[in-house]
């Protein structure tokens, strides 16, 4: 994963807590925020996802590291936590952790619904899954629920519309992490009054720049980005290379910050939610949302730099 300074790493490995070691790193800088277009509500550009390693750790009995990750997110000014019933125990464990840490109301809860089988979703099953999410998160109103990976959008988005109208869900949307579904996503974005879409986007995965992101701007739809590191692909591509000196022009000190600043500096992107199960990585990620951001010319330079690297 991303590399912190040797001095900071030594402090971390000596056994101090993340909040002790890193708490002062961003004390003089606040996370950049962006508005949710449909409401104007400001949200921090760096959040936390719960697939991948977060999901793996959530299956274990000892989830102390996940509690530290979530409290670090909130303690450093973050807010958005993205999860889904399909991410194993992530949603249930996160709800319990947040309750124990008294941060439930400080988190922007973004979850999903998907009970589709063979392209069709049973409405009763979809409603039951959503009610389970309410029980796990333990809030009377969930901030965001999206139809996961474009699964039977007419049925499941229809249910979400009803929940929003009833005041039980603040925002609704659809997601996909599959390029083959982008055309269908665009059709839904044009036809429906969505608050959010969720997609993959990274400095070496920019297909959504051609259609999805411009349309999100035009339709005033917020965008959550799920894989700003290409899972682990980008870290493999850069290997042991140092972050280029010119990254200092936009305050990127690590590769994680370099990759995140590329993503969240796009005008259409509202926030990125990289998953992690380690507080030190959560804090590194927070650094991707503070300080200066790359302008369009710098973003092109960043993309060209990565394109010149060997594929992972």
- Average pLDDT confidence is 92
Q: Assign the CATH architecture.
A: Alpha-Beta Barrel
Task: Kindly state the percentage of residues in helix.
Answer: 40-55%
Q: DSSP helix count?
A: 13
Give the helices and strands as they follow along the chain: HHEEEHHEHEHEHEHEHEHHEHH
Beginning-to-end CA distance, first to last residue: 14 Å
CATH class: Alpha Beta
Hey, roughly how much beta strand do the residues contain? 5-15%
Shape: globular
Any idea what the radius of gyration is? 19 Å
Structural domain count: 1
Q: How would you write the strand order of the largest sheet? A: 3-4-5-6-7-8-9-10
β-strand number: 10
Describe this structure in words.
This protein is an alpha/beta fold and 312 residues long. It has one domain (41-307): TIM Barrel, CATH 3.20.20.100. The protein is 40% helix and 13% strand. It is built from 13 helices and 10 strands. The chain has helices spanning 6-13, 18-22, 52-58, 64-75, 90-100, 123-137, 153-165, 182-191, 212-219, 233-238, 255-264, 279-286, 296-307, and strands at 33-35, 42-44, 48-49, 80-82, 108-113, 142-147, 169-175, 196-199, 222-225, 271-272. It has an 8-stranded parallel β-sheet with strand order 3-4-5-6-7-8-9-10, with helices on one face. The longest helix is centred in the middle third of the chain and has 15 residues, at 123-137.
